[in-house]
Amino acid sequence: MILYGYAFSLIRHKNILPYLCFNVIYLRVIYEYFIIMNFRSVFHIRLQNFELQAERMLDAALKSRAVAVISSHHANGTIVALSPEARQEGLIQGMKVSLARKMSHSTRLLPYNRSLYARMHNYLYQTVAQFSPLVEPAVFGQFYMDMTGMNGIYKNDLRAGDIISKRIDELVHLENHIGISSNKLVSRISTSVVPERIYIIDRGEESHFLAPLHSRLLPTSAEPPVEKMLRFLFLRQVQDVQSVMERETAAEAIFSRYYKPLAMEAQGRDTSAVQPPRKRDHIIEQVVLPEDTNDEEKLCAIVRQMAGQVGFKLRRRSQIARQVNLEIHYTDGYSSRRTGSLKINDETSVIQDCLNLFFRANIRRNRIRTIIVDVSKFQTVACQLDLFRPIETQNRTLAEALDCIRKKHGFTVIKTAA
Q1: Distances (CA, A) of 373 to 17, 110, 265, 309, 413
Q2: By CB neighbour count within 10 A (0-12 exposed, 13-18 middle, 19+ buried), where does 357 fall?
Q3: End residue of a domain, out of 83, 112, 141
Q4: Which long-range contacts (CB under 8 A, 24 or more apart) does 8-12 make?
Q5: Within a 13 Å sphere around the CA of 256, how many CA atoms are in the beta-carbon half?
Q6: Range of the structural domain that residue 62 is part of
Q7: Is 409 or 253 the better-scoring residue by pLDDT?
Q8: Looking at the structure, do residues 288 and 358 belong to the same domain, yes or no?
């Protein structure tokens, strides 16, 4: 009663009332924020065999025959998606094209039509974006949706998932699965292992849901050191990983810097938010090799040419890049990425930095199919000569001379030798 009386006496003063109201509103906002963060509802939409379904929608004659979508018609190409009829003939995902041709002569092999899949993916994104303001497109045929606070419109998550699934089926007639949980990780895993069209994992049941599943479903298990250790210790199921993580000292010694992310994933915890696509300024150079190869001389020559084009564009903008991602895609579908930065934008420095990233990223002996250089986070620099750094000054002067020639006659008229 004393506290209530003291509060009432403060409210009677006109000067304190606005500040008290502001503090009450501020605390209410903080309270609602924590409630939303602790009770999130994240949907993951997955269209199974998206590439195959898109091809069959385009050509109705493919619906009743064995079909496989391949990465390329080269002998080292692999199967990306295939129909149940093709599976009955012994084909599996990831199989080499040369072996698939020997095993089955009736299966139709379709090349990977990226433009078709991109248009279909964008159309689906525009469709699902009508149900939530927060939609994040992932790989082709997959989307994340943050449906937190939408129960006032759709009553419950099950009804919302049913409406979205039927809407997709009405527009494009593609089979889809929706996983619903409190975070992106568990929702995505559920759509890959659960056959039900809509499946909900209740809050607090994430670790129990993951326990019987294979440990390779955890994203961190794809890291080479973690994968090697999981195979060495026979940690085949997530529940085996959970039991190891209970002994923090031993688990940290085994997995070192991968301990914390692996422990969170094994318990079904994920704090990443659903983020709509954002337009950012970047420079991308991509080369799809006409023939898959692991010849280091050829690959280095390609990286030099890509780095030269990146440096040329940076110098025209008078900028340097604080972030450079070099990504390698192998013939079997595996990819590797390394990140660095460009502190100088002359020809020699950019090529050397990109080559270093390539050597760090190329960790396998398999043939390479695609190389991507993505440059972003630009910063403007002043092209001022330095008397005490003659080598960098010479490189910059040489790069400016090369740029003058390339502007007049084209970029490919002159190239940097190995």
Answers
A1: 58, 28, 30, 10, 22
A2: buried
A3: 112
A4: none
A5: 4
A6: 50-112
A7: 253
A8: yes
Share of the chain above pLDDT 90, in %: 29
Are the C-beta atoms of 344 and 401 separated by less than 8 Å? Answer: no
d(CA 262, CA 210): 13
| Residue 238, number of CB atoms within 10 A of its CB | 25
CA angle 263, 266, 269 (to 5 degrees): 85
How is residue 304 written in tokens? 């030099």
For the chain, percent of residues with pLDDT exceeding 70: 81
Same domain, residue pair 324 and 251: no
Write down the number of H helices and E strands in the chain.
17, 12
In this structure, what CATH number is given to the domain that contains residue 66? 3.40.1170.60
Angstrom distance (rounded) from CA 392 to CA 185:
47
Residue type, 255: F
Q: What pLDDT band is residue 378 in, cutting at 50, 70 and 90? A: confident
C-alpha 310/C-alpha 112 separation (Å) is 28
Q: Counting every residue, how long is the chain?
A: 418
Which amino acid would we find at residue 106?
S
Q: Are 340 and 306 in contact (CB under 8 A)?
A: no
- Average pLDDT of the residues of the chain: 82
Apex CA 97: angle with CA 373 and CA 76, to 5°?
45
